[in-house]
Automatic annotation (TrEMBL), chains A, B:
Single GO BP term: malate transport
Membrane topology, as annotated: Multi-pass membrane protein
Protein name: Aluminum-activated malate transporter 10-like
Subcellular location, record wording: Membrane
Pfam families assigned to the protein according to its UniProt record, in alphabetical order: ALMT
């Protein structure tokens, strides 16, 4: 307490002199460096703090990412300690621990599918390249010491070039990109090694076995502790995107026809379509990895993952339209309230039926059961859209074609009208016509999503939902129109 | 000749019996297997042929890919032969050749930027992890044989987990993903190695020097022989996408207002916007790599690559609208020819001015010189759009607001009209209104592209084009309207 008081006292004494002017004599070069260092440290600490905060949010948002990190640490600790406890440091063995550790580091991926893809590629490519390398070594050894380096060099050049080129072919890149790299690596390593062929066999055996240990450890750890299946992720992404799209559509139409100011929640809801627009790359990589996954949960080994990409494409198609719709809403040029009110009910009805269809499709995918009443909902949607189009048809009344064919007469009439208190009508109705026609286009594209989901249900043999039969006989059938 | 004749004779003799019935006794199990094998071989040969054909097309379309493969082969042959000629197979050296080969295989990428990214990440991560690993080893050694494996195991677990988690942070992933992996790898390898600390220093020195040899060889080969710069690729992609967008817009509008059947060339031209829609991932990865590239050609080290991403986003924004426009064109419900003819000129004019703007922007980026007449072209575009909107305004004539406020009276009137020979007008004009309003929206979005390109010109300090001054004084100024 006494110390504290004295320091406080000291400060108090210094304070009156502590203005910048008085401090100047003390802050020479050293002082400046000190201030600069403090500033730098402050910035670094602040930046590190920001990154840590960001990392914390990532961890909280998806705890599986934290679990993944723990899994990686676990697998590496196990393989490190295993080799540390009983080192195999004989002539070749110096490498063997390294190969196991390297395999774990390189092969362990976030999803099971990606881990499988890398494991299988690594084992097969190592085996093939090893066998080929030993073969070339045999040939080179028999052709004398002079020719040997030439043969080896040419073979490395040829095979490395060919394997590198194969990585540019899309179908190879999607499935065997990592394998091609490992092929080049192993083949070059075998060629560059100065061992004799007999030694090579022993080396190959050791390397394959350590890789096998590494890969099987990875597969065990990735599958046993909270596995993240690429297929499940893709499945989840698709039905979540469908719900986001429905929410966006709902938000957009509500926002357009609402009578009060914008709500914050609504604005956030409306932005969901942007996720759909940007999810192509994620979908493709997940579908690629999902192919390598064994049967898990509700998904077979040969689950039609490609069809998910088609559903994703059809969703993006909808999202393009919703993006245009969204820009209509934010444009300044709006239809007059009386017109908007006139269309509000019909447009809201069409959008809510469209949303019903999207949500039903999302449930179909989520539960992996054929929906019993999707046909009814599609019919309802089509019926509502037809009503909307009818309402639009009934807008202008007469003399339309007659006036447009003669441009001059129209102009004259318009000029006459402009002076009066009636504003030019098409300008007023234009924003509304845009919204309605986009709404119609969106329902057409939702039809595309319905087809894609039905194709998925057929390919993946979805079972009918339990409550299928009774619902089909419900009186909602009366809404089914002839489209 | 005699042989040939006899074989031909034999065949001729066999032919009459060679029908399927006669051959049956011969084609037992062996025959079936033979036929099956032939079928399998045929399929395999056909598939391989298809892949080769595809590869050939890829090579022809972009010979730089073939050159890249040759470069990889060359770098690998050089490093392999270098180590084969003077092997460093002493106590630690067994690994050293391997590290150089591995570095070349793993680090050599298609673009200079990607190669730099991997090289710099690899060297720094190896150095950091090596130093940290040796430090932990020192601590562990001093705490006795019992505690050593525990300390090593825990440190591997902690650092591997932390480094793995850092790869989930977007800013780290974009710049240091590969570095984080190499950090984990090196740290684990140092920890698992049973060497004493003095040996470790020697090992670290050897490993760092081999990695340095590998990386510098890669950088030399990638920069000296036909370098592919990620920055140039991004630059090229952006202005090419701009041209594709202009062509798509041109194709769409021409297709809509054309009077004859569809042309094949036009159809292909129209699809250009799809490239723009799908180029986000490519743009982002190229911008990431471009940051690592040294000054080359017209690009400085600190060229504003991020601004290219913004231009890309604004282009995609336009592409969404063109996508919707494209679906309007293919819809069956078309406006009557007289109406289309009425709007044809104005719409074509607006689209051709928009295309002019896009092409001018593409040239601005291509030549990296400020356009002298972009303002004029934007004004022309705005003027043409204004005219188009005016033409649209002048379409319906009177009594519009009056009829829409009273729904019932409208309906009555419509029913009255439906019986007559005038079809309901809004249905006829609807597709056209859609096209025109999309055209207007597209020009608004082109405005966004103009802003993004101007920002790039400011950030990258584009110089003014040589023919700047005279053009600005040209009489085109009269077209500049007040927007």
């Amino acid at each position: 307490m006494a110390n504290k008081a004295s320091s406080r006292l000291e400060w108090r004494i210094n304070v009156p002199d502590g203005t910048s002017k008085v401090l100047e004599p003390e802050s020479g070069a050293v002082g400046k460096i000190w201030v600069g260092l403090k500033g730098c440290m402050g910035i670094i600490v602040w930046k590190v703090w920001r990154v840590l905060e960001h990392a914390w949010h990532i961890g909280v948002a998806d705890p599986r990412k934290v679990i993944h990190c723990i899994k990686v640490g676990l697998a590496l600790s196990i393989v490190s300690l295993f080799y540390y406890m009983r080192p195999l440091y004989d002539d070749f063995g110096g490498n063997s621990a390294m190969w196991a550790v390297m395999t774990v580091v390189v092969v362990f991926e976030y999803t099971v599918g990606a881990t499988f893809y890398k494991c299988i590629n690594r084992v097969i490519a190592t085996f093939l390249a090893g066998a080929l390398g030993v073969g070339i070594h045999l040939v080179a050894e028999q052709s004398g010491d002079q020719l040997k380096p030439i043969i080896l060099g040419i073979s490395v050049f040829l095979f490395a070039s060919a394997a590198t080129f194969s990585r540019f072919i899309p179908s190879v890149k999607a499935r065997f990109d990592y394998g091609a790299m490992i092929f080049i690596l192993t083949f070059s390593l075998v060629s560059v090694s100065g061992y004799r062929v007999v030694e090579l066999f022993e080396l190959a055996h050791l390397r394959l076995s350590t890789i096998a240990i590494g890969t099987s450890l990875c597969i065990l750890v990735t599958m046993l502790f909270c596995p993240v299946w690429a297929g499940c992720e893709l499945h989840h992404l698709i039905h979540q995107n469908m719900e986001k799209l429905a929410d966006s559509l709902d938000g957009c139409v509500t926002e357009y026809f609402k009578e009060n100011g914008s709500e914050k929640d609504l604005n956030k809801k409306m932005q969901g379509y942007k996720c759909v627009l940007n999810s192509k790359a994620a979908e493709e990589s997940m579908a690629n990895f999902a192919r390598w996954e064994p049967t898990h949960g509700r998904f077979n080994f040969r689950h039609p993952w490609k069809q998910y990409l088609k559903i994703g494409a059809s969703l993006r198609n909808c999202a393009y339209c919703i993006e245009t719709l969204n820009s209509c809403i934010s444009s300044e040029n709006q239809a007059p309230p009386c017109l908007r009110k006139h269309f509000s009910n019909k447009c809201m009805k069409a959008s809510s039926y469209s949303i019903n269809v999207l949500k039903e499709l999302a449930i179909t995918i989520k539960k992996m059961k054929k929906s019993s009443n999707i046909d009814v909902k599609v019919a309802e949607m089509n019926f509502a859209v037809e009503e909307l189009v009818d309402a639009l048809k009934s807008l202008p009344t007469t003399h339309f074609i007659a006036t447009t064919t003669g441009e001059e007469s129209t102009k004259a009439k318009v000029e006459g009208v402009e002076g009066s208190e009636y504003p030019s009508p098409i300008t007023k109705v234009l924003p509304l016509v845009k919204v309605v026609s986009l709404m119609v286009e969106i329902t057409t594209r939702i039809g595309g999503v319905v087809n894609a989901v039905e194709e998925l249900a057929r390919l993946a043999e979805f079972k009918a939902a339990k409550d299928g039969k009774p619902k089909q006989n419900q009186p909602t059938d009366k809404l089914v129109s002839d489209h």
